Structure formats: structure tokens, C-alpha cells
Amino acid sequence: MLAAKVVLDQGVDVEGVNFFTGFCVEGHTHAIRKRERSKAKRNNALWTAEQLGIKLHIVDVIDDYKDVVLNPKHGYGANLNPCLDCKTFMVKNALTEDLVTGGEFDFVITGEVVGQRPMSQRSDTMPVIARESGAGDRLLRPLSAHNLPPTLPEREGWVDRDKLYGFHGRDRKPQIALAERYGFNDYAQPAGGCCFLTDPRYSSKLKDLWDAKGERDYELDDIMLLKVGRHLRPALNYKLIVGREEGENNFLAGYRHRFPHLRMVSHEGPLTLIDGSPNAADLTLAARIAARYSQGRDAAQVCIDACHVGGVTEQFVVAPLAPWEIDPRWHIGP
Amino acid sequence: MSAHRLDTSGLLCPLPVIRTQDRIKTLACGDTLTVVASDPGTLQDIPAWCRVHGHVLLESVDQGDRFRFLIEARH
């Protein structure tokens, strides 16, 4: 937002590009969880574009982004976050989006600041993004330009370098002060917090998914389901996704025709999807686990329907597991 | 001018907006697109997207579990 405003104020035409990778924290997550619904929902990229008075291209890159997540040339950060490859991908795709929409733009700007992020925003890695994206010196970082060599738009006088900034490091006070000067008192979450791949729990679930599949691959539904519910793997051949609240139960219900699932009959309780191929004994254990998270957790017995794909339903009457019977190792990404 | 329809039910934001954006690009100025969605987030996002791009939101209807938007394309 700030980087765009700095350049807009120099009379440059700016349009925004927002990429939907499937790992975005906003949007989906807010829509799923009922407790999030009390908050005003908005797409921050759209909201920002509206505040700035610029157009915004929202681009679905779910399929193309897979290669970034599965085969990052520069590796991962602390979790499964391929930040350097991700930034490179996005700058490259911003150039592509411009070509697709008419090739009217001369350079790309980002809000990156030297030293702000440990992987992708370092003085030695920011030139890598410029080089490997193909943007070269058409990539301008207005907030940190004074820490970097002059780019083409600066050398050509398309933007005045003296009116750019030299922000550096993790401290965001200079950005906050600049936002105040512009009268921005509401802005999106800083980088890093907007991507599930920086989340250790989510990353554990993604690793488990790959282990269970026997290959490093995913579909959109796979990565969506990792955002929702408690994930427990009592055995290698199946895992359970247990809704934690009404919003999640409703979301999981959308998958009930594609996954076997457990539905509480005698008590209120979560919807539980079963991902894998459980045998009869596994189903009994799964029902006892699901019962543990129901209103019948303290009852002697709980009645549960196991609904198979295709419509066949088996009814189980089971004793809920006691808390100490839930093996902590079953929890994926606790 | 012609009328078109797009059903994004089951998709969560921003996908309904992306599908709307991609469909509108194929329409002529003055064509209308009816978008049906199930994600309540569209109540904010689709009007915001129309405002940002200058398309005219003729109607926005909250039907509880479904949301319907009538958009006139302006290019």
C-alpha cells in the first residue's frame, strides 16, 4: 500500500496485482470459521486498491504455484515457506499479467524492505529476485530504494529517487510513521502473517499429507482441508479431520459426499471426515475419538453414524476415549 | 447487449471474485452478468471489485445461504 502510494504521488500510473496461491490466510479462513464472522470481512488487496483508487488484478495461480512449493530452488524458510522463490514467482507473474493485459506498464514495484524478512528481503537475496524474475532493473522497491542501486525508472527519471525511501530492517516504525503521514490508519497485516506456509502447524500437516500420499503433491481441496479442524492420524492408513466449531463443521459437510465421515447421533458433536482407508477396527477407534470431542464425551456410550461414500451408513455405539487415551502423537501439527 | 450467468456456489473468496473478473473480461460493454455465490465474503468483495474496476452493480441480493449480484460490464 505504501510503496504504491509513494509512486502514485509522483504521478505514475499504478495497478495492483494480487496472486491467489491457495495458501492465503485471509478470505477462505475467515469465511470458514463462524467465530471470525463477527469481524467485518474484506479482501485486503481489494480494500487497499479502493483506498488508493487503483485497479487490481486478482490472479489464480494455484496450479502454477505448485512448483514453487514443491521444488523451491532456494529452499524453505523456517517452515515450508519458499519465500525467495515465491517473491521471484510473483514478480515474474506480474510481468506476465502485464503482457496478458496489454503490456502497458514499464516497471514493477513491491513493498519489500532490505533486512525486513530473513529469507527474501536481504541485501543479498533481493537482487536474486530481480534477476531470476526477469524484471532486472525494472524492479523498484520504493520504500528501500536508497539501500539499492538505482533502477531503470530512477535513472530514466520516470520516478524521482530523492522522493523514495531508505527503510531498512525489521523495525516497522518508519512505515507506520509514513502511513500516518498519508492518513492511513488501517492497513493489512505485515508480510509473513498472510501465508499458511509460514505456520509450523500448517507445515506439519502438509508434510503429513505428502507422507500419506507417498508423493509431494497436492490439490486445492487438500490444502484447504489442512486449514480446517483438528487433524489426527491414529494409524498410517487414515487420518481424521474433526470440526472444531459450527463454521468448520459446515465447511467439512461440503466434502461429505467425497469422504467417509462420522456424524453424531445421540449427542451434539463435530462432523469428522475420514481421509484414507480405515478397516473395521479403525472405524471403531475413529468413532471413539470423534465421541471424545462431542457433548457426549463424559457419557458411558455415544451413538455415531459412520457414513460411507455411496450412501451406506453403519451405526456405532461406543465409549468415548478418555483424554489420556488420545495419544499425543496422533495430533498432526498440534 | 446480452445477459450472462455465473454460478460460483461452493467457492470461497477470492475465487468467486476471480471467476467474476475473468468472465467480465469476455463480455462487451453493457452486457450484464448475474453472479451467484455461497460465500458471505462476496457481499463485500464483489461490490468492492465493481467499484475498483468501474463496473456497475445493478443489484445485490442476500438470500441467506446464497447471494446474487447483477453486474453491468463497463470497459
List keywords for this structure.
heterodimer, A: 334 residues, alpha+beta, Rossmann fold, 2 domains, six-stranded antiparallel beta sheet, two-stranded parallel sheet, 12 helices, 10 strands, 33% helix, B: 75 residues, Translation Initiation Factor IF3, 2 helices, globular
Question: How do you describe this structure in short?
Answer:
The complex is a heterodimer of chains A (334) and B (75). With 334 residues, chain A is α+β, with helices and mostly antiparallel strands.
Report the average pLDDT across residues of chain B: 95
Query: Strand percentage of chain A, roughly?
Result: 5-15%
CATH H-level homologous superfamily name of chain B = TusA-like domain
* Portion in beta strands of chain B: 25-35%
Report the radius of gyration of chain A as a whole number of Å: 24 Å
Helix content of chain B: 25-40%
Number of helices of chain A: 12
What is the count of structural domains of chain A? 2
Q: Just give the CATH class of chain B.
A: Alpha Beta
**Helix-strand string of chain B:** EHEHEE
General description of the model:
The complex is a heterodimer of chains A (334) and B (75). Chain A has 334 residues and is α+β, with helices and mostly antiparallel strands. Chain A has 2 domains: 2-197, Rossmann fold (3-Layer(aba) Sandwich); 228-330, no CATH class. Chain A contains 12 helices and 10 strands. In chain A, α5 runs parallel beside α6. The longest helix of chain A has 18 residues, at 83-100. The model of chain A has no long low-confidence stretch (mean pLDDT 91). By secondary structure, chain B is α+β, with helices and mostly antiparallel strands. Chain B has a single domain (3-72), classed as TusA-like domain (Translation Initiation Factor IF3). Chain B is built from 2 helices and 4 strands. Chain B has helices at 15-25, 42-53; strands spanning 3-7, 32-37, 56-62, 67-72. Chain B has a 4-stranded mixed sheet, with helices on one face. The radius of gyration of chain B is 11 Å and the shape is globular. The mean pLDDT of chain B is 95.
